[in-house]
């Protein structure tokens, strides 16, 4: 059986989450980043706005 990953969701937008998000959007790892979340919604919005393509904030 084969499973296809359609996208990644990221929880946490601190230093490590920011690095991971950057690597994903640069195509270095994994499929497309489709959503991010952080307990600090302003941090999640700030990170999402810095990425291309912009993931959704949940």
- Low-pLDDT segments, ≥5 res: none
Distance between the termini: 31 Å
Total number of beta strands: 3
Class by SSE composition: alpha/beta
Describe the structure.
With 58 residues, the protein is of the alpha/beta class. It has one domain. 34% of the residues lie in helices and 19% in strands. The chain has two helices and three strands, in the order E-H-E-H-E. The chain has a three-stranded parallel β-sheet. Strand 1, helix 1 and strand 2 form a beta-alpha-beta unit. It is globular. The N and C termini lie far apart (31 Å). The mean pLDDT is 92.
Give the tags.
alpha/beta; 58 residues; 34% helix; 3-stranded parallel beta sheet
Topology:
Blueprint (H helix, E strand, L loop, with lengths): L7 E4 L3 H11 L7 E5 L3 H9 L6 E2 L1
Parallel strand pairs: 1-2, 2-3
What is this entry, summarized?
The protein is an alpha/beta fold.
